[in-house]
């Protein structure tokens, strides 16, 4: 027995006791069969959304029009979706309508890959109409039904196929991959937000190196916003990265203007992350690799980001053309520097604008910010102790006011 399924079992029981069918389905069943960690379970049922709402005390109608009701348990929440068949696909995007059905087969038949189309009942019996278990055993990603039709219906499945390859290391079934190649141009029709969701999962996939040749073969990036403006036959796909670091490295390698990031329709927070990774890569390319410089970088960017970038440079040294200096570009050193930092933020300084103005009897102005910046640098480089008296003394001796 698996804890996540045991925790959700009561939902299946309530549904069944009221005359409905109910199963676990999708990613959780797949990951269970692959012995992977399962985060959340999805439940599929013959009960209509209204019936689900009526049977459980606390529910949320998230995605009710597509049949999904969230059932709230004591600590967890569960997605319960009515068996459905997708309506017509218009323009290769997700269907405009859904039709609720009473047959489990129809519900799994609309799913993308056979490994994602396995249903499992509360006693762990599989209902595996498309032989998803063999696909998992043989490590193959196969479309449910006729591959070309399924990719034409919803071109996002091309992205999903590639990201599942990066996450599992499985091979794409020949016909499935060929269908993906033939329909890759339809990615132009897919909202970039949905593509980005898949790219984030892809780039952190453990087997991303296996995916590179698939991506080149499919010629996908030509058909995606942002990426299509990078005029390069093979777009750099790194090891050991995350989405923001990857995009930052593309800006660095291909000299892209940050204004292009708008095409990705990501948040400002994500843009800032990308730009700070870009700045760090440039710093390691151009600035001196001295300990002093390292202290400034660790202070400004934080230990985690610096370590991520160091590992990234080490893994992708040749392609980035940044020389890796193991003695100074070293995670242990970063930890040590970080632990010894006398302050972690400007607000930790034991001096501020008010103190400066009264001590030097001078009105506010740009000199305050300039002075505090100098004090900050001196403190992190241990040139002065972070007490008010020491700092004032240091300013008198070192800053012209
Ligand atoms: P993850 O572990 O990353 O969540 P997942 O397989 O659970 O992977 P979800 O996006 O959570 O992916 O979707 C849940 C299930 O819904 C899938 O397993 C699949 O059966 C079905 N599904 C999702 N997206 C599509 C799609 N574009 N076309 C067909 N079926 C899909
Ligand atoms: Mg999921």
Keywords:
Hydrophobic Seed Protein, Beta Polymerase, domain 2, alpha+beta, 11 strands, 401 residues, binds adenosine-5'-triphosphate, 9% strand, single chain, elongated, seven-stranded mixed sheet, 4 domains, 19 helices, 49% helix, binds magnesium ion, two-stranded antiparallel sheet
Describe this entry's structure for a reader:
- The longest helix is centred in the last third of the chain and has 19 residues.
- This protein has 19 helices and 11 strands.
- Helix 6 runs parallel beside helix 8, helix 13 crosses helix 14 and helix 14 runs antiparallel to helix 16.
- It has 401 residues and is of the alpha+beta class.
- The strands form 3 sheets. It has a 7-stranded mixed beta sheet with strand order 3-4-5-2-1-8-9. Strands 6-7 form a two-stranded antiparallel sheet.
- Bound molecules: adenosine-5'-triphosphate and magnesium ion.
- Its EC number is 2.7.7.72.
